[in-house]
Design brief:
The chain is an alpha/beta fold and about 325 residues long. It has a single domain, classed as Ribonuclease Z/Hydroxyacylglutathione hydrolase-like (Metallo-beta-lactamase, Chain A), CATH 3.60.15.10. It has 9 helices and 12 strands. It has a 7-stranded mixed β-sheet.
């Protein structure tokens, strides 16, 4: 039988839970201006969780003389709705397009809040988002629950081609690279020097690898860093992690991927099974990376079987 104190405590907890449940789920999005006409909306440097509403991505928008473009739309319909209100309040120019930089859910799950605006992505991104969207939704609903209410996978409806385009008074290069996924779109504003690096750059955060090809990724980082070096202002916006660490994110990402590639190769050649690789300790420099404890085991499951196959003489692809 419970004591009066236990009953009181249980009652207070129930009241607190009911009060929390009655509060609107607000992402508290803020637009931070980084350059003329250019804003970023920073997500949590963390793993998906109910605490952050699965908002771990940096999205952004550019208000050109010919209208505003939105870059990525977040993990849920709710995020997209709140993003749209913030963009329309801040930009001062009507939104003429939304662009999704890759096929992962937090890049495009807010698309459904942008009805009446065309949404764009590379052809491979559109195909991948269509193929994998339902499983993404199942996963995020399990992780973040009510934050996802009403969210449906809504891939971009228009195909964008790589190349240089004019968005009003801004010259934009849309660069197709690969490695994080098979189609990684990078948006390079040649007018301001701001680069939306998509999933290729993680700043002080362990990279996600469900579609990764590490050699391609490392080559893309090298190519992108050469492009950035030739720009005027050189502001890099990583997909995940602190925006102010964007340029340092090249080195953060490269060092982690290089270690992962070497460790998996040595482990496979040494005959370690997947359970043994899961218990390999992270080097000291990576232990402070956000989400490292979650992302390393995921990378083992995503990638290590390919290294085992290669070590046995099979085709790693």
């Amino acid at each position: 039988m419970r004591t009066a104190r236990q009953l009181l405590t249980a009652g207070l907890m129930a009241v607190a839970a009911a009060s929390a449940a009655s509060q609107p789920l607000d992402y508290h999005l803020k637009a931070r201006q980084l350059a003329p006409d250019t804003w970023v909306i920073e997500g949590a440097n963390a793993d998906f969780s109910p605490k952050n509403g699965c908002n771990i991505i940096n999205t952004g928008f550019i208000a050109t003389s010919a209208g505003t473009w939105v870059i990525n739309t977040g993990p849920s319909r709710r995020y997209g709705e709140q993003q749209r209100k913030l963009v329309e309040k801040t930009a001062g120019k009507p939104v003429v397009g939304v662009i999704n930089l890759n096929l992962h859910p937090d890049y495009f799950f807010g698309n459904q809040a942008w009805s009446g605006v065309k949404t764009y992505a590379l052809a491979g991104t559109r195909e991948g988002a269509t193929r994998e969207g339902p499983s993404y939704a199942d996963n995020l609903y399990k992780i973040c629950g009510d934050w996802m209410s009403g969210t449906e996978s809504t891939p971009a409806t228009e195909t964008v081609s790589p190349g240089v385009v004019r968005w009003g008074d801004h010259e934009i290069e849309l660069k197709r690279l690969k490695g994080h996924t098979a189609d990684d779109l990078v948006l390079i504003d040649r007018t301001t020097g701001v680069v939306f690096a998509g999933g290729l750059v993680f700043a002080h955060r362990a990279p996600t690898t469900p579609h990764a090809a590490i050699p391609d990724w490392l080559a893309s980082l090298d190519e992108l860093e050469r492009i950035v070096a030739a720009l005027p202002a050189k502001q890099v916006i990583p997909s995940h992690g602190p925006v102010d660490g964007g340029r340092a994110g090249f080195n953060d990402t490269r060092r982690y991927l290089t270690w992962l590639d070497r460790q998996f190769g040595q482990s496979a050649n040494g005959g370690l099974d997947i359970a043994e690789v899961l218990h390999v300790p992270l080097p000291e420099e990576f232990r402070s990376y956000s989400a490292a404890d979650a992302e390393y085991p995921r990378s083992v499951f995503h990638l290590y079987p390919l290294y085992e196959k290669k070590a046995l003489g099979g085709d790693p692809k």
